[in-house]
User: Fold this.
Amino acid sequence: MKYIKRVLDINHDLERKSQFLFGPRQTGKTSWIREELDGVSYRFNLLDKKLVKALQDDPALFAGMLRREGIDSGLVVVDEIQKLPFLLDEVHNLIESTDIRFLLTGSSARRLREQGTNLLGGRAGWKEMYPLVWPEIKGDERELDSVFRSGLIPAMYLSDDPDSDLFDYVQLYLNEEIQAEGLVRNLPSFERFLEVAALGNSEMLNYENISKDVGVSRSAVISWFKILYDTLIAFEVPAYTKTKKRKTYASSKFYMFDLGVIRHLLGFEKIEAGSTEYGKFFETYMAMEMRAYIGYRSKPKLNITPLSYWRSLSRFEVDFILMEKVAIETKTTRRHTARDLKGLKALKEEGLFSRYILVCNEDYAQTTEEGIEIVPWRQFLDELWAGKIV
Assistant:
């Protein structure tokens, strides 16, 4: 299969110290290691059941295998570290006693955190790999509805039959991440929960309503959302609450991590232009890009929220606040109206941000008399990844 060069670059970070690299299944961690990671001395693949059994029986085998190869420096990769959380004690000892640097990959940190595992106490950095992003696919110039159909997981994006592959992908997630790890006892209800969660994509969550729709308790719903976050299948965008003129909602908004997965769970053959779902997919796409940009390229200050949204109790809303500096609204319109700018105008009255941007499907960028920028979505993504938005 064709390999798409990725934005992720942690070779420099690995020269300084070990790194965790987490990302949802099939986002391309293994391919990236094969194609772009420099100077790997040894690699442990914990999808190898025979190796996993041997290390479970004798954890000291881990260090012994490296000694047998004469490795006391260089880079060692451990794939799917969440399969054997106790190995982090062995990794810790080797970091302290040798010059080995480790790249520890996984699709979930849940088991590591739940078991109180040694997370190396700052001896390793933390990175995340996302689905494909704009700089990686820009030359392809697909239309939005094509991206909405396939999603941006590399294998699905390149697939001749994304519908079939997305079905297999969701089943793989259910079987390997959920059932095999014993995270959920009632798998049929969890499958229904995934469908209902997809319906709530880009919305504030109402646990009570979801509980009724799925037929399980509110506490179960909350715990299942935590599974989605821990296995990197979804993320939250918190509310921006620092405005003074208008009181705000404080609940976070929920997004799933990939457009193709959302479409599959919703059961749509196509996301029709002009539909409510089309607008939600467009908003989600921009959320994914900004989140990935923050993860790959920026170093937010500790006292700010990198990505948030604003909604007043009087129903004014702005989709995103980026780095607490730029207010961003998303619309699929080809010609904006005063209604499209209402939220930005209301937020602009607070005088908190340096820029107010409507990202849309128009052909040309412009600025309104009120100082609101109208930016075509492709140009917005170009400027975002060039570091020109904030």
